[in-house]
Design a protein that fits this description.
mainly alpha
Length: about 100
Amino acid sequence: MQTLFTVLHVIAALFLILVVLLQQGKGASMGAAFGAGSSQAMFGSSGAGNLLTKLTTGAAVVFMITSLTLATLSKSREADSVIESPVEETTGPAAGNSAEDK
C-alpha cells in the first residue's frame, strides 16, 4: 500500500513540475504586449491559462493528499531498527575510564 502511494506521489510531483514549467510567467505578458514571441507560444497568443491552472490545482491536491497519506502510513508502522539489540558496554582498554580501571 505504501509503495502504491509512493509511486503516485512521485508521478504527481513530476507532473506538477511539468505543468508549472509550462505556464507563462507574470512578467511575460509585458513582452507579449509588444509582440515578443507571442506567435511562437505553444498554446497561441491567448495562452492556456485556464487549463494549466486547473491542472496545477489538481496536481497540487494529489501531491498534498499523497504527502499526508504517506506521513500517516509512516507514523502508524512499527519502528524498525537496523540494530537488532542494544549494544552492550565493553570492558577493556577501549572502553575508556571507568571506576573499575582506577
